[in-house]
């Protein structure tokens, strides 16, 4: 077994990196894959609460790197999915507590035991980002369909290319189909044209994400959640399956547009 | 595709998404090439100065801009040659 290392990154904060990490991790583990999710946001630990594992932390990433704990001791096993693990970030330290070489060493130790290593990157382009991409095989760039998030995603794509970690794959999160439909939100084609990068996921804005995060049960565990389904689709694409992108503003939108085209006055 | 629909349905001009896209295309060209509007203006003035040594150009009509093809950046200079300078070229 040789794990593939995925870094989930974005540049901008608050676009859904941690949510994406938790949900893709859950979705891959649900497919029977051995997964470890690593929170590399030292000082701003959050993956633990999003995954609902906050009460089980004994050791953290910095404890492992500084030799106070063995990897096995810091790796929390998820009771819902036996193949899912999480290594929490340290909460009382900062990004300088680890170096890119530490992440490479850590991932080299994990690779033989896992199928996937998911690294949740902190926001920004400084040390924390460098740590998060050091061992990365593929970067998943999370963005939202709005100007600041797309601009920051572009910066990240450029930095990944410069570090020869590119080009990465794009996840567009928090899409509001009704806004796209009335021309007040960038659509998928716009974002892809602007960023010129491959797409791997389209996640609709979905309140089940907030609700499931409140409970510490990632939406990918909820078969009825639309966002959860979108994350499960990403997991299948990562596994090499050719999963079509279901139209979010889909058939209704096209019908709506066609009807406006055919009956322009009636629809206006 | 959506552009055609927008135009046909009269949505194009008022769409804020379209404004977002246009603004992003410009700002990302500058970001990627690390050429700000100030540097672009300096480059334009230099081009005008060099070209003006040979032919007449009206600086007001010269356009120097950045555009992207995929993730590759291009610098484009559009320099209209005035009728007067064409005549002068022939005279020389």
Description:
The complex is a heterodimer of chains A (268) and B (92). Chain A is an alpha/beta fold and 268 residues long. Chain A has 13 helices and eight strands. Chain A has an eight-stranded mixed sheet with strand order 3-4-2-5-1-6-7-8, with helices on both faces. In chain A, helix 5 (100-110) runs parallel beside helix 6 (127-134). Chain A is globular and about 70 Å long. Chain B is an alpha+beta fold. Chain B contains four helices and two strands, in the order αααββα. The longest helix of chain B is centred in the first third of the chain and has 18 residues, at 16-33. The model of chain B has no long low-confidence stretch (mean pLDDT 82). The interface between A and B is medium-sized, with 29 and 25 residues.
Characterize this entry briefly.
By secondary structure, chain A is of the alpha/beta class. Chain A has helices at 17-30, 47-51, 61-65, 71-74, 100-110, 127-134, 147-162, 177-181, 188-195, 207-215, 226-238, 250-262, 264-267, and strands at residues 4-9, 35-39, 76-77, 84-87, 116-120, 138-143, 169-175, 198-204. The mean pLDDT of chain B is 82.
Structural features:
heterodimer; A: 268 residues; alpha/beta; eight-stranded mixed sheet; 13 helices; 8 strands; globular; B: 92 residues; alpha+beta; two-stranded antiparallel ribbon; 2 strands; elongated
């Amino acid at each position: 077994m040789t794990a593939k290392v995925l870094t989930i990154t974005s540049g901008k904060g608050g676009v859904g990196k941690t949510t994406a990490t938790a949900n893709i991790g859950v979705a891959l583990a649900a497919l029977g894959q051995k997964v470890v999710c690593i929170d590399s946001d030292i000082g701003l630990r959050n993956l633990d609460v999003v995954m609902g594992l906050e009460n089980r932390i004994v050791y953290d990433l910095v404890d492992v790197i500084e030799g106070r704990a063995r990897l096995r001791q810091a790796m929390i096993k998820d009771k819902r999915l036996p193949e899912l693990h999480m290594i929490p970030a340290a909460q009382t330290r900062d990004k300088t507590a680890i170096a890119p070489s530490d992440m490479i060493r850590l991932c080299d130790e994990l690779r033989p035991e896992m199928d996937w290593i998911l690294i949740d990157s902190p926001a920004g382009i400084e040390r924390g980002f460098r740590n998060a991409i050091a061992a990365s095989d593929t970067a998943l760039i999370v963005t939202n369909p709005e100007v600041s998030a797309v601009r920051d995603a572009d910066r990240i794509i450029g930095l990944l290319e410069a570090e020869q970690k590119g080009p990465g794959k794009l996840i567009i999160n928090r899409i509001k189909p009704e806004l796209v439909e009335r021309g007040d939100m960038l659509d998928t084609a716009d974002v892809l044209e602007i960023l010129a990068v491959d797409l791997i996921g389209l996640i609709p804005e979905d309140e089940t994400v907030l609700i499931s995060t409140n409970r510490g049960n990632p939406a990918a565990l909820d078969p009825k959640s639309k966002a959860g389904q979108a994350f499960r689709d990403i997991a299948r694409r990562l596994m090499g399956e050719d999963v079509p992108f279901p139209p979010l503003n889909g058939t209704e939108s096209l019908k709506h547009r066609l009807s406006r085209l055919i009956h322009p006055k009636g629809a206006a | 595709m959506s552009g055609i629909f927008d135009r046909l349905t009269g949505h194009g001009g008022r769409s804020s998404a379209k404004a977002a896209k246009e603004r992003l295309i410009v700002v990302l060209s500058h970001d990627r090439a690390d050429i700000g509007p100030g540097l672009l203006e300096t480059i334009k003035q230099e081009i005008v100065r060099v070209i003006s040594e040979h032919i007449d150009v009206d600086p007001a009509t010269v356009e120097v801009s950045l555009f992207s093809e995929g993730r590759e950046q291009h610098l484009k200079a559009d320099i209209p040659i005035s009728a007067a300078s064409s005549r002068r070229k022939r005279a020389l």
